[in-house]
What we know:
The protein is mostly beta strands. The chain contains 3 helices and 20 strands. A 6-stranded antiparallel beta sheet has the order 18-17-16-15-19-20, with no helix packed on it. A hairpin with a 4-residue loop joins strand 11 and strand 12. The mean pLDDT is 91.
Amino acid sequence: MPSGSKKHLKRLNAPKHWGLGKMGGVWAPKVSAGPHKKRECIPLAIILRDRLKYALTNKECMQICMERCVKVDGKVRTDHNFPAGFMDVIELEKSGDLFRLLFDIKGRFVLHRVSKEEGSYKLCKVVKTLTTNNKIPVAVTHDGRTIRYPDPDVKANDTIKVDIATGKMSDIIKFDLGAMVFITKGHNAGRVGQLMHIEKHEGSFAIATIKDSKGHTFCTRLVNVFAIGSGNQPQVTLPKGRGVRKSIIQERQEAVARGDIEM
């Protein structure tokens, strides 16, 4: 058997948060290697074709990218399978679109439209801090950035505000109790709340307890938690629903009130 990564991806094996229909064909776009993990990102082809409807086919997505129309985090990306991940800023200059990639309350990728001012920065979670062989302190972020000479206060799990044009760090959001956090993975992906408690288990996963704005408490692994602000002040605007998950009964009642379904 040949070794190495596969070059194809079947639609049934594609991540569920891409939202691809089961009957829409056999294949799905295979994400290229890049700054995000393959199961935690979405290729530009799906954004252009299935979400924004700017293309009808994969070939058209390729043409749009090769015409240098798509920017991810301020850089032109000509690969139509380039992986865009959580907090990335996607810009389409010709149509005047500017989006931030976030999760909705059901854990699916959503293109959240932002202003020019908000699209000039992004939040990056610090995965680890280290000192290189040349004695240079660096911070490594969730999107593959290596930031040299960061603020000495920056520790792992903190979030830093990065200016997209310069790549420089401008602000720190400390990962402390009371911080406003966004869940990026797991069953609770897309939920937003306040960090209440951290439970450390030696040799196993640390567990974080979070309380949302409606007073519901839930737990998740510490690695799934991304600080986005302090108190009730997020540094980025949140998508529809503001990270509060409703029960299926509440969703039904709201649908009835809107007149979408009849009792």
